[in-house]
Write a structure and sequence with these properties.
Elements: E1 2-3, E2 6-7, H1 22-32, H2 39-51, H3 72-78, H4 80-88
Antiparallel strand pairs: 1-2
Length: 97
């Protein structure tokens, strides 16, 4: 995450794919980024969840690091600063890689 020998800090919201309360997480994310989640948008999100609860509309995608010529160690090395920050914020190591 370094660019030209400087640390690049991004405002990141850790959102996990297996959510027990997806709308609650979306409310938190909108708030975190200072955005307004309108009633209409929330209604559309709920409609999506009600009609596609298992996210089958777009199919499932499975990719491997090997397909892109990288290893877990490569990812850990490149993103160690991000991983360290997210670990301090409560992200469990086993959820990273």
């Amino acid at each position: 995450m370094r660019h030209k020998n400087e640390i690049c800090y991004l405002k990141v919201f850790p959102l996990f794919f297996h959510l027990s309360d997806p709308l609650g997480e979306m409310r938190k994310m909108y708030d975190y980024f200072g955005m307004t989640l309108t009633a209409e948008t929330e209604k559309e999100m709920q409609h999506y969840l009600d009609n596609d609860p298992k996210n089958t509309t777009y199919g499932k995608h499975k990719y491997t690091l090997e397909e892109f010529g990288v290893t877990k160690e490569d990812i850990r090395k490149e993103f160690h600063e991000y991983i360290e920050i997210m670990t301090r914020r409560g992200l469990k190591q086993d959820m990273i890689l």
